[in-house]
Amino acid sequence: MLLRGFRRGVDRFLDALDSEGVVLFQIVVYLHMIMGGLYCLFIARGVPQSLGEAMGPVIESVWLWLLCGMSICLIGKYLSSHPNKTRYFVYSTGLLLQLAGDICAFGGFMGYVVGTMQMTYWGKAVVAVFAFSALAWCALFLILRDVRRYIQAEKDIRR
């Protein structure tokens, strides 16, 4: 019984990996960013000093909460992939939560880019700017996808 459940889980993972979708990668990136935001909020009590100086205390707090806000997207993924899609409000709420979470992701990624670019001396931190810029573009594309999926769901329900 336990082995069968494990095998089913492995099969689902491999199906997600082979699907050429973004869900698996989105979950990995968002979970790590959420953990980073929670770590900075509750354990480290802030961001690295150079980034904190560039952002300021208010923007720093907003940025950390944007990172934690990515969890909204993961909840939305669960709701919109729920087997009972006949309940439209569950499905549409899931899509809207995904949109909100992806907007948080975009804000979090761009916040890092803008905060780092404001520093007078980039030094070696410039490498992270390129990575976060790429993640921001990906989040923007996910926002566009979420809007299109929600519009399509609205059209389908009106038919």
From TrEMBL:
Highest taxon above the source species: Bacteria
Record key words, sorted: Membrane, Transmembrane, Transmembrane helix
Transmembrane segments: 21-44, 56-76, 88-115, 121-144
Protein name: Uncharacterized protein
Lineage: Bacteria, Bacillati, Actinomycetota, Actinomycetes, Mycobacteriales
